[in-house]
Design goal:
This protein has seven helices and 18 strands. By secondary structure, the protein is an alpha+beta fold. The N terminus is likely disordered. Strands 4-3-5-7-6 form a five-stranded mixed β-sheet. Strands 13-12-16-17-18 form a five-stranded antiparallel β-sheet, with helices on one face. A hairpin with a 4-residue loop joins strand 1 and strand 2. The structure holds zinc ion. Zinc ion binds next to helix 5.
Length: 400
């Protein structure tokens, strides 16, 4: 919801206002301070479904509505400011708001005890019940993306000072994070146990939500890391709130075509495409200290990112992938062309990998948000100055 549009309503409810919107009166001073420089965000067509999920033997933790609302609204501003900085406009993921300014958080009570919804495989049963809940009433579901928050386990291993036990990861358009008693924005940035704990779990909350909004891992170029800190989708979950943390341009390009970022009035049916885009030309060559990628694809492609990474090329070993965003244009055949430069100096330690073996991951995104990835392993010292390495026939998989 556009913040300015609800100002009058919130005013009538006796809530305080900032220049661009309102911060609910019942929010804590630290939240008010952090939200004081909020930017006005574009209104969204779809909103994230925020779920607080408990087993049938548990209750939500005290004051969860205010605490999670403060954390989510601050995070919505972080994403919005990073989108604006990267030239995508003041856009963020949509959230439904309650009349008192809180974020709408659906409490879903599981059919089974909380231990049945554990880290290992509890997400399956949880998602099944959450999807049934969202479908049970027309209009309840406000978009395809689901963010599930579960309270920590309390057992021999886990408690409020060492939370865990529950799912904590991204899974396609769904993601999971956790709640615990000290999960409160008032601790943000403090050099205390609660402050460090908050960076870990709020940073993780922000990072997993990134996955749930379609983002893969990436660590940023040497230049961007020097300017902006640590990329959220790399190791930023360990710096968020304590040290400069940012979203890369490659991440923001993906978010620009993520459903919950779609501006009000968007009629696109998101994530309906199954077939990978056709690539008619692909060239990857080296000009001095720069690698150059050129692609010609069908016109439905709106975005092409390239990620350079070192082996092994598996999920969760790709935190250090260095992202590059293409310059997109159209040629006279109506195709999308993508041109991209990768200065070796931007690869940091990656350019020194043993035997020079690296991989180029090309991520193509179509206008309705689907991502398709194509991996091309290569040896840095064997990239020709003219022509191209053999990139083979594109073999795509649905991008994470
Ligand atoms: Zn991750």
């Amino acid at each position: 919801m556009k913040i300015r549009a609800i100002t009058a309503t919130l005013c009538a409810l006796g809530l305080s206002m900032t220049a661009v919107g309102a911060v609910p009166e019942h929010f804590q001073p630290r939240a008010k301070e952090l939200l004081a420089d909020s930017i006005e965000l574009q209104e969204n067509e779809h909103q994230l479904n925020v779920i607080y999920f408990v087993g049938n033997d548990r209750e939500p933790l005290a004051d969860y509505e205010r605490r999670i609302s403060e954390l989510l609204l601050h995070l919505q501003q972080f994403y919005g400011k990073e989108m604006a900085r990267n030239g995508m406009g003041a856009r963020s993921f949509g959230l439904v708001r309650e009349k008192n300014g809180n974020v709408k958080i659906h409490v879903v009570r599981g059919k089974k005890p909380h231990t049945e919804y554990s880290y290992g495989s509890g997400h399956n049963a949880c998602l099944e019940e959450v999807n049934a809940y969202l479908a049970a009433e027309p209009g309840r579901r406000t978009g395809q993306h689901i963010f599930v928050i579960m309270p920590t386990f309390y057992d021999k291993e886990y408690n409020d000072l060492n939370p865990g036990g529950v799912p904590f990861y991204g899974l396609g358009i769904n993601c999971f994070a956790l709640d615990y008693a000290h999960f409160d924005i008032k601790h943000l940035g403090q050099d205390t146990h609660e402050g460090r704990l908050l960076t870990k779990w709020y940073g993780g909350f922000a990072h997993e939500l990134g996955h749930g909004l379609n983002l893969p891992h990436n660590l940023g170029t040497v230049s961007d890391n020097a300017k902006y800190g640590t990329a959220l989708m790399g190791a930023g979950n360990y710096t968020f709130g304590r040290k400069p943390t940012y979203l890369t341009l490659a991440s923001c390009r993906i978010l620009a075509h993520s459903e919950t970022f779609a501006p009000k009035g968007t009629t696109t049916k998101f994530y309906t495409r199954e077939e990978a885009p056709a690539v008619t030309t692909a060239a990857f060559k080296r000009c001095g200290d720069t690698l150059e990628l050129y692609l010609e694809t069908e016109s439905d492609v709106v975005n092409a990112n390239a990620y350079i990474q070192d082996p092994p090329y598996v999920v969760n070993r790709d935190y250090d992938a260095v992202p590059f965003a293409c310059t997109m244009s159209k040629n006279d055949k109506g195709q999308t062309t993508a041109t991209l430069s990768i200065p070796l100096s931007e690869l940091g330690a990656l350019k020194n990998v043993k035997d020079g073996e690296l991989a180029l991951d090309v991520l193509l995104q179509t206008h309705e948000g689907s991502r398709f990835r194509w991996r091309v392993p290569f040896e840095l010292n064997k990239i020709p100055a003219e022509g191209s390495i053999d990139m083979g026939k594109p073999v795509f998989w649905r991008g994470y």
